[in-house]
Design brief:
This protein has about 80 residues and is an all-alpha fold. Helix content is about 60%, strand content about 0%. The protein has four helices and no strands. The protein has helices spanning about 5-20, 25-35, 40-50, 60-65. Helix 1 (about 5-20) packs across helix 2 and helix 1 (about 5-20) crosses helix 3 (about 40-50). The N and C termini lie far apart (about 40 Å).
Length: about 80
């Protein structure tokens, strides 16, 4: 059975596979998608799982630093 945290890493990996072939910065694109569509809890679990040493695509690892966590307020434009 796949743990829900593993599923988050797998989903982020699928995003990395897509954004790798697109113009721009793939890690920031993955994080942008996560910030827009994942719940605060999903984002928190994703970052925690990576911090605990989960295996992940390098783009996914890099994306984690751009993911907004629930206790953070978004930057004002």
């Amino acid at each position: 059975m796949m743990h829900s945290d593993d599923k988050l890493i797998r989903m982020a990996g699928q995003m990395a596979d897509f954004f790798r072939s697109q113009p721009g910065a793939p890690a920031e694109a993955v994080a942008g998608h996560i910030n827009s569509f994942w719940t605060p809890r999903m984002r928190k679990d994703f970052v925690r799982h990576l911090a605990e040493g989960a295996e992940a695509d390098p783009i996914v690892r890099d994306a984690a630093r751009f993911v907004r966590l629930p206790e953070q307020t978004p930057a004002r434009a």
